[in-house]
Amino acid sequence: MSGFTPIRILPGEGIEVLDQTRLPQEERYLRLSTVAEVAEAIRSLRVRGAPLLGVTGACGMAIAGEERGAGPEALAESAAELKATRPTAVDLGAMIDEALVAVAAASGDEEGRRAALWRFAERALARQRERDAALARHGRDLPGLEGAVLTHCNTGGLATGGAGTALAVIAEAWRAGRIERCYATETRPLLQGARLTMWELGALGIPGTLLPDTAAASLIASGRGGAVVTGADRIAANGDGANKVGTYGLAAVAARHGVPFYLAAPASTFDGATPSGEAIPIEFRGDDEVGGFGGERWSPDGGGVYNPAFDVTPADLIAGIVTESGVLRPPYGPAIAALTG
Asked: Quick one: which H or E segment has residue 139?
């Protein structure tokens, strides 16, 4: 980590999360001690990033045990409420389900069940940090990670609670002297690249250059970037990957110009029950995110808005998928089955 952590677990009390909607102007931590507060923080993107959503979901279940009781019915209701906040990222639902399994195996009394939920949440965060470190090491020497690279959205510690995914790979390559600069898209409409990735690049000491999303294709065509590296929120059994909307376009342009495109994601992001990207549920968000930002409105009321939060990159455009266990190569079906089976 680089002097900050996006989540702090306070067993028996709640959690503190770095409000990512306030960055980079303000580093403000929020205390969350109810399921409703956790759900709101996830839904409003105060906490975000597929792996960190998983950890937050586990914490939300521990909070549910304190607030509503650790009985099966109460926990099942809280689990459904938390899962409904962000349907595309597989980590959130998976970690909530794992928390339910952990508490079912715990001591039968209420106190023992609550303690088991907090222990699971703490282990989930520790495990994520270990995964991030291993993933970064495996991705450091990828072909094309030299000179300069392009990334999209935010995939550093803010997205995982550890070192990150794609940005952790980039940081390892930079420390190894392979890359000199990271280009970051602004990532419309909520500017996660401009606000968060540029902030993290500064914290890491990596030279960063911000560009509009609409300039990414020309940057790739210019030859300035040796590779494109992004994260993923869900990867289907055939290797199709859902990530922040705009990722598909980057992968298509990269393929057109012979630039390798990589995904970086932990094994928890793979969804073997989803055969292909066509079956991945895509979250659509509100009109207000496109017509303005931060309380300022620049588009007239009354017009329609198309605002998907994610798109799906077909597996045949992906040169490799970096995980904590190594780099997967095509054909992805057998590789993913071996990893997740």
From this structure: helix 110-139
